[in-house]
Structure formats: structure tokens, C-alpha cells
């Protein structure tokens, strides 16, 4: 999920007060009834790592109620978050209250003094979490209306439950949105499954803590994606599941007739791997060395080798590693397949008999551990071999 937009509450450590740099648009004239206003930021508080929302209910310029919502790193050694929500008592210009953090159950005490000058607001005071005291000294803050705040809360996880095809989403990439209290059981249900879980999606973000839902990113063989989605949708606590963006880039993708590349309802992966390797062998002037299909992700890893010209007398080997992915061109049954082929990754090794040179990848070298600048027209050669089509990004059609 995307992080909440940072619009500036500007809570700061006292030794280094943060000055808000952004000014928001002029707010509409207040009505006669209660009005809700927001301050949003992580500026300065907890070394600038806190995500803060202060909600105020006002009658005219008088604050009648306030809620402080702070999400922050639970410890410095991980991405794990904690959060507290404190209902604050309003006493003139003083906002104070207590709470308990959600994850670690730490006691929280808040005492802030609020000062308004025109459209600018200043906050000073202390926030104590457990034994840690944070001094707050923040000036020149602007607030948001209810509509402005809600507009800024919109998040997009890119889940598409029923895409018309795989031109905007990737056939191997699955997103599952699940309620936080059900996420652990859902993840445990994937043990033993032929699927990979994106570890970055395991971190519970501030957005997830506030919404109560977490999006888990999965990579699966496209031939098993529909079955995985059906299982996910029936799992307790799952609120959405579908395809998302992934490895496939349309400028390196081919669509072609499926008939010659299937055995029954299954893709003949060995036949296809042989065909891809044969084309790459010609375009890269290299010999196929290995072809391996990943049982979890459905990706094909091809390795091709040729003599390296970097130092001919040493008899070194130049290695080309290419990743490919094949799937139907849309969910469900289709008479066409899609093939994505990565740019080659190039490295150099000593494959000679006997004692060998130990070579290290050098990111500054075009020869080792780098993506090839030119694959000698491999995609066009594959289009010709497979009698396929390429994607026209300008017209959004296959050509």
C-alpha cells in the first residue's frame, strides 16, 4: 500500500524544531455547526519516522474534542510498527490524554499546548511512550478539511479480480487483501503450497493498521493462479483477491497461437524452452547450458555460454542468464499464449579444467553481472519463430 500523503502537522523533537514548508489552499468559510479539521504529518516526531493524524472537532475557533493517532516504528531493527490512538481532553489550549499502544501495550501519555495565529498553528509539549519521552516543538502548521483529508486517504493496491487480459496486470502476480486478525491464519494456510510470498508485504504498514486490512503479494505459476485465487477468496477474512502488476513488461512480451505449444490443456514447457533457447543461441551467438522451470513461480531460467573476449588468453566464459514466463493471454481459457523474456544478465566465469580463477562481479563493468545493452534483436527473432505479435503501447493493441 502507498503511505499516507504527508501534509504537515510538523511535530518535532525540541532540540531541532521542524518548520512546515507547505501551505494548503484557503479553507472555506466555517459553518455555524461543528467542524472537523485535521493535521497530518510525521515531521520530526520520533526522528521523523512517525505517521501522525490529529483530528480536531471545533465550534468556530474553539476546539471541543481531539483525537491523536500516531503510528511509529516499534523498534529500530525492523519494519514492525506500533500505534496508539488517544482521545484528548481539551482544557483551553491544552490537549491531554492517555492511551495504550496497540501492539506492544505500552502506556502512552500526551500533553500538548496549542496556539493559533491566523491560519497557522503551533504545538508544544510531550508525548511519552513507555519510558521514552519525546519533546514536541512544532510551528507554522496548517490544517485540512474533512474532504481534503478523506481525499488524501485513498490508497490503491492494484488488485484486479477479473482483468480482461494480462496487458495491465501480470499473470504470475497475485494480491490478497485480508483483515489483520485473519492474516496469520491465511499465511499459515499457504505452507506447503507452490507459491512465493513477497516478504515486503508481510510488514504491517501504518495504512494497514488504520484500515485493519493488509495486502499480501504472492507469485505463482500462471497455470495455478486461478486455483490459488479461488482458495484465497474462500479464506476467512479475505476481502479482495486478484491479479496485480508483476514481472511482465509489455515491450518484451509476445502473443502467439497456443495450439502448437500445448499437450492437452497443459503448456508443453519443454518444447517451448527448447525453442526459446534455440532463438537466443542464434541472437547471442552462445550455446544453451541449462533450462530450469521454477515450480513455485512458473518462471523459466535459461543460461547460455560463449567464450569471453575480455581476456582471450585466459579462456574465460561469458554467461547469459535470461528469465522467461509463459501464460495464457487472459484469465480462463484462451487459444493464445503470452511469452515475456527478460533482458540477458551477463557475467564472466572461469569454466576451464583444473585450478580456476575466482572472479567477482563488478557492477562498474559492462562485462560482468550487468544487464546486456543489446540482445541482438532477440524479441523480434522470437516473434518470427513463434509467428507472434508484439504490443503496440501507443495504440494499446497487439500488432
What tags apply to this protein structure?
single chain, 399 residues, alpha+beta, Alpha-Beta Plaits, TATA-Binding Protein, 10-stranded mixed beta sheet, 9-stranded antiparallel beta sheet, 7 helices, disordered N terminus, signal
Overview of this protein structure:
It is built from seven helices and 25 strands. It has helices at residues 45-48, 146-152, 180-188, 206-211, 222-233, 269-284, 378-386, and strands at residues 18-19, 35-41, 51-59, 62-73, 81-91, 94-100, 107-117, 120-129, 132-141, 144-145, 173-179, 196-197, 213-219, 238-243, 253-257, 262-263, 266-267, 287-293, 299-307, 317-328, 336-341, 345-349, 370-371, 389-392, 397-398. The two termini are 34 Å apart. Residues 1-26 have low confidence and may be disordered. Residues 138-170, 345-378 are annotated as: Disordered. Keywords: Signal. Residues 1-20 form the signal peptide.
Task: Spell out the blueprint of helices and strands.
Elements: E1 18-19, E2 35-41, H1 45-48, E3 51-59, E4 62-73, E5 81-91, E6 94-100, E7 107-117, E8 120-129, E9 132-141, E10 144-145, H2 146-152, E11 173-179, H3 180-188, E12 196-197, H4 206-211, E13 213-219, H5 222-233, E14 238-243, E15 253-257, E16 262-263, E17 266-267, H6 269-284, E18 287-293, E19 299-307, E20 317-328, E21 336-341, E22 345-349, E23 370-371, H7 378-386, E24 389-392, E25 397-398
Helix pairs in contact: 6-7
Describe the biggest sheet?
A: 10 strands, mixed
Helix content: 10-25%
Average pLDDT confidence is: 89
Regarding CATH, which class of the largest domain? Alpha Beta
Measured on Cα atoms, how large is the radius of gyration? 28 Å
Amino acid at each position: 500500500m502507498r503511505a499516507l500523503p504527508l501534509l504537515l502537522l510538523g511535530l518535532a523533537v525540541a532540540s531541532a524544531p521542524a518548520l512546515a514548508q507547505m501551505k494548503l489552499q484557503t479553507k472555506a468559510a466555517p459553518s455555524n455547526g461543528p467542524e472537523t479539521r485535521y493535521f497530518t504529518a510525521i515531521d520530526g516526531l520520533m526522528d521523523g519516522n512517525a505517521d501522525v493524524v490529529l483530528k480536531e472537532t471545533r465550534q468556530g475557533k474553539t476546539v471541543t474534542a481531539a483525537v491523536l493517532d500516531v503510528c511509529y516504528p516499534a523498534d529500530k531493527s525492523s519494519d514492525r510498527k506500533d500505534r496508539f490512538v488517544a482521545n484528548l481532553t481539551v482544557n483551553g489550549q491544552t490537549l491531554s490524554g492517555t492511551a495504550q499502544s496497540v501492539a506492544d501495550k505500552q502506556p502512552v501519555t500526551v500533553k500538548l499546548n496549542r496556539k493559533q495565529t491566523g491560519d497557522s498553528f503551533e504545538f508544544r509539549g510531550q508525548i511519552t511512550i513507555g519510558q521514552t519521552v519525546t519533546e514536541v516543538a512544532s510551528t507554522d502548521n496548517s490544517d485540512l478539511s474533512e474532504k481534503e483529508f478523506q481525499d488524501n486517504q485513498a490508497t490503491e493496491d492494484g488488485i484486479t479480480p477479473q482483468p480482461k487480459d494480462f496487458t495491465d496486470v501480470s499473470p504470475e502476480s497475485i494480491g490478497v487483501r485480508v483483515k489483520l486478525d485473519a492474516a496469520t491464519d491465511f499465511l499459515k494456510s499457504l505452507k506447503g503450497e507452490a507459491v512465493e510470498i513477497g516478504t515486503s508485504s508481510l510488514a504491517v504498514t501504518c495504512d494497514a493498521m488504520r484500515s485493519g486490512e493488509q495486502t499480501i503479494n504472492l507469485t505463482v505459476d500462471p497455470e495455478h493462479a486461478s486455483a490459488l485465487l479461488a482458495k484465497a477468496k474462500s479464506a476467512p477474512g479475505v476481502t479482495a483477491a486478484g491479479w496485480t502488476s508483476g514481472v511482465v513488461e509489455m515491450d518484451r512480451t509476445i502473443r502467439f497461437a497456443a495450439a502448437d505449444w500445448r499437450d492437452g490443456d497443459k503448456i508443453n514447457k519443454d518444447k517451448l524452452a527448447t525453442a526459446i533457447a534455440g532463438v537466443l543461441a542464434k541472437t547471442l551467438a552462445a550455446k544453451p547450458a541449462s533450462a530450469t522451470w521454477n515450480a513455485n513461480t512458473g518462471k523459466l531460467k535459461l543460461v547460455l555460454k560463449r567464450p569471453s573476449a575480455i581476456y582471450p588468453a585466459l579462456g574465460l566464459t561469458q554467461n547469459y542468464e535470461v528469465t522467461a514466463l509463459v501464460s495464457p493471454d487472459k484469465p480462463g481459457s484462451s487459444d493464445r499464449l503470452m511469452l515475456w523474456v527478460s533482458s540477458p544478465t551477463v557475467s564472466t566465469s572461469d569454466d576451464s579444467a583444473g585450478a580456476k580463477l575466482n572472479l567477482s562481479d563488478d557492477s562498474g563493468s559492462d562485462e560482468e553481472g550487468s544487464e546486456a545493452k543489446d540482445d541482438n534483436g532477440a524479441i523480434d527473432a522470437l516473434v518470427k519463430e513463434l509467428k507472434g505479435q508484439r504490443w503496440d503501447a501507443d495504440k494499446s493493441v497487439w500488432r
